Amino acid sequence: MGILSLDKAVLLGGNPEEVLSAAGTTLLGLDSKEALDRLNKYGPNFIPRDDRVPVLEILIDQVKSPLIYVLLAAAAITIAMRHYTDTWVILAVVVLNGIIGFVQEYRASSAMLALQSLRSATSRVKRDGIVRVIDSSELVPGDIVVIQSGDRIDADCRVITCADLRVDESLLTGESVPVEKSCGRLVDAKAIVSEQANILFAGTLVIEGRAEALVIATGIDTELGKIAQQIKAESRVETPLQHSIKKLSHYVAVATLGLSGLVAAIGIVRGLPVLEILLGAIALAVSAIPEGLPVVVTITLAVGVRNMARANALIRKLPAVETLGSTEVICTDKTGTLTLNHMTVNTVVFGPWKVERKAATISDVTIQMLSGENPTAKTESARRALDNILRASVLCNSSSVVVQNGQIVERSGNPTEIALLEMALNLAPELYSVMINKQVVAEIPFSSERKFMAVVVPKDGSDATGLELLAKGSPEVLVNMCDTELTEDGSTTIDKDRWLSLANQLAEGGQRVLALAQSDWLSPDGLNPEGIRGLTLLGLVGLIDPPRPDAAEAVEGAKNAGVNVVMVTGDHAATARAIAIETRIIEAEDKLPPVEQDPRVLTGRELQSLSDEVLMDRLEDVKVYARVVPTDKHRIVRLFKERGKVVAVTGDGVNDAPALKSAHIGIAMGKSGTEVARQASDMVLLDDSFATIIKAIRQGRFVFENIKKVSFFLISSGVGEILAVLSALLAGWPLPYTPVQILWINLATNGLQDVALAFEPGEEHLMRRKPRGLKEGIFDRLVVQHILTIMVLFAAGTLTMFKWSGGEAKLAEARTVAMTTMVMFQMWHVFNCRSLERSIFNVPLLANRFLLFSVVAAFCAQLAVLYWSPMQKVFGTKALTLEQWAVILLVTGSVVPIMELSKLVGRRSRKR
Question: FRET partner for 339 with CA separation of 20 to 30 A, picked from 139, 405, 743, 834?
């Protein structure tokens, strides 16, 4: 156990002296002997690496499929019968499928390995009363570590002393704004990770400040280590496509072997030559089993991968392409996915006026009265009041930007302060020279204890003399430091209750609120934080990380596609709800209930008080989960899965890795995400945008539909061939085609056409349909109806042509006609398969040129088999007459109107 046995009330709620005493150490740190004893007791400070799956195990997994078993059995039989060409064809398919699967599995790196990069090589620690630099793996609970700006924290620590300490905890909380840390007591001993202001967590980064902190947990006992353990324990879930293919493979293998065995049994009972019957049965099995399906599925998925990459979605595991199309629930982050991950001024309130954001930033000066009306008088006063706020935003600011050609090209500092600079320079570009030439006479830097910043600067204007004080900070603090406020008629006594109420309204709308104030500065005694009083309030600024411009439209598209979008964030409930309303995750209402009473919003603390059964009942109603911790997110995903939903989850931090791995589809951020999150994911968003997820879902649905089309084409054709042979045997006829002709039918019609179907353009109506359920097979009732129609037509048409052309009396010629009939049936039929619902006449012929080429190539190959003497000898064919061709084309062409009728019935059935 690499953790100190400290009561949480003492750890969080005790003062530094109490915590040190309980930990058995002092501010001078441990002595070397005690440190060594604790290292032996608690173990080294590192996260164990995960073991790779053995190569042999990956190889064996590639042949665990009923289809592969049947193909291997068929290959063994062909070897025994010395039909080696058939053997090589069958084995080539098995090997190709195995290679593709092996490469995909082997390349999937372990997320555990990426966690190693989140620890530093060394740490500064007090040992024997002096500061030493040691290997980070030697840190032990009870050590006193010395921390400064730029350091990465290597163990969980309780802050003992600090100065202006701010830490980037985005990899744990997902929120990009640095967190202020303190060494004070924490009142709430049940505070979640994002609320533990006196705790530093392993893997986080110190943005500014310095501190000394007590190590309280190391290795796998840190929050980072607990996440690693969750990743290790979480098994990869089977995707809907893998489930469907496995199920289809089982049914096809059983049905094919059963029917082929029945054909062999009937033939032997009838006294037909045993060798011919066995070869015919094997040929039928090989022909009917869609052995090309695994390869075509891979090609189809690869096409999807290519198309998704063009849309900024990088797929790490092929099955994830189709899984996206089956997604029923998206658990999405807020920051950076639905929002721009860039703090922006949203509202400025000053006197009786306000300015609001028009787009991603405040882009013009449309000043309104707070009542919502346009100002009718004293516009000059309003502009002067706004100018005062803009100037204060630039001068009372410790961050900086670089402007070139009127555009900000470089930013440095605090995101909130940068947002103030962007607003000011956007509305008043001339303030750039004020910013770069500012002279600060005295300054009080911002601190979490004071909650405000103040600067003394020369007064504005060429005629101005003297100094002025500018301040910005928390409204609760700054408003109480003010005696006056600006109005239309100049300054007047401040109405503090009104301003605090306005600040509260902005905060309830999800905005971070700052107040700005000003006064003349005449004090000769320097700048004392305790002595600042009598300020004039300039106004309030509300900041927000605004939604991406395309987020609302993307959420609406998800809803139209039957996908439930749920926000899961570490941010405050009010902020989260405000963004959820703007992005249409939550429907806007004229009068919103208080956020704590909104049934659509659930906080992490409330969530932890609910049992799984109660939470399960609320899953469909809750749209926003706020202030959640990693275990909460993982739990939400787990419960959605237990409800039978196909779940996609987004994430960028280390804390998201367990949920990413647990979900059916894990989606990591490519720009802002950690390597751990990317390694645990199935897909990486190169632009971090939620809209890209919806594009990927769209492509995923197209991919699955194409897989369904290929499967329908292969199985309906193969079953049609078996039914024709079985019917002929039951009728007492000879085989309608020889074993080698059966193999030719399979080669001529399934060689390129099935692959060409993988390149079919998507059908947009699929995004107006609810997702396919987790347990649904590849074929629905409509497709089964199509299969039954086609197999009966193929068998009846082939046997009719066999009999018409002479039957047993002219066996070679009749078999040639029957073989050609089956080939032409499938050539017509592949065009039907371009859409399982739309009419063939509504699908542009040239939209898939590859398919057109494949049919022409197959037809030319069929002509060679019929008219080229070397091929005639191999396949036992005869040249056909024009009359025979006319009848064959007439009969086989009937598959188009018959399939059109079946589609019409299906469309009406779906509408009902």
Answer: 405
